[in-house]
From TrEMBL:
GO terms for biological process: regulation of ARF protein signal transduction. This is Cytohesin 2. The lineage of its organism: Eukaryota, Metazoa, Chordata, Craniata, Vertebrata. It comes from Sinocyclocheilus grahami (Dianchi golden-line fish). Transmembrane segments: none annotated. One of its GO terms (molecular function) is guanyl-nucleotide exchange factor activity. Its main location: membrane.
Amino acid sequence: MTFDSDTYMPKSKAPKMDDLDYIPADLSPEERSELEEIRRRKGALFLEIQRLKEELREAIIEVEGLESSTEGSKTLQKSRHVAMGRKKFNMDPKKGIVFLVENELLRHTSEDIAQFLYKGEGLNKTAIGDYLGERDDFNIKVLQAFVDLHEFTDLNLVQALRQFLWSFRLPGEAQKIDRMMEAFAQRYCHCNPGVFQSTDTCYVLSFSIIMLNTSLHNPNVRDKPTVERFISMNRGINDGGDLPEELLRVSVNNISQFLLYFWANECLGELKNWVKRLNGNDLVFCFRSAVSVDPFYEMLAARKKRISLKKKEEQP
């Protein structure tokens, strides 16, 4: 027996996930909220794309009109230099910045360079991450200014991490990631005072969430961490105390359904390989420095030890 699909379920009546009013009946309240947030972001992205298309069209018209005049030629030359500077930056971030500064297209201040990287127009996200991760004093100032451009007020930690990690790609060197996540933790705690006892707590939990994202969405990790294991592995990180279980459960559920960032298997070169080598009970975010000599273990173990020592010092 065959059915005419249009007779059985007319296309106009068949529910679709793209329909703005359609919400599957089997979704939990958290899933419904997440679906609404995704649709809101989708709408905002669509409007942004339309705006960029209109700006591009206007820019093309403007360039075509400027080419016929001397002043227009100067403007066109400047635009070409900016495009060349962006290309140089994507090949070698430091040389690109030097080129833009020497051609008076960018001021050599941490605030101006941070704004340039934050806008990210025509810039490679990997190159942005490499530049922000450098340990030179000036680069560290740029990193701080870059992080300060992000507004994390009233966002939960997963939402803030998504926003932060969307603006660049984390480099593969542990020391660079350490500096960037330290700056993120300080900014998040500044925007949301009282959520965590200290920036150390925010730092450790942020790392846990990043590792959780990689473990859950990396096909090479067969033994996926459960909510209970994640809660257990993060006990005592809040200045010796435990974080609310609900906060940790929401984080796991959120990450299990939606990637923290879309290039999970393309960046974190060292981290991706470390996760592959782990067995079921020794996932990256359990902070057992004795299991491995990898830098991530050392960083997280040292940070957790500092939290424990600080708690002991405060005890009478």
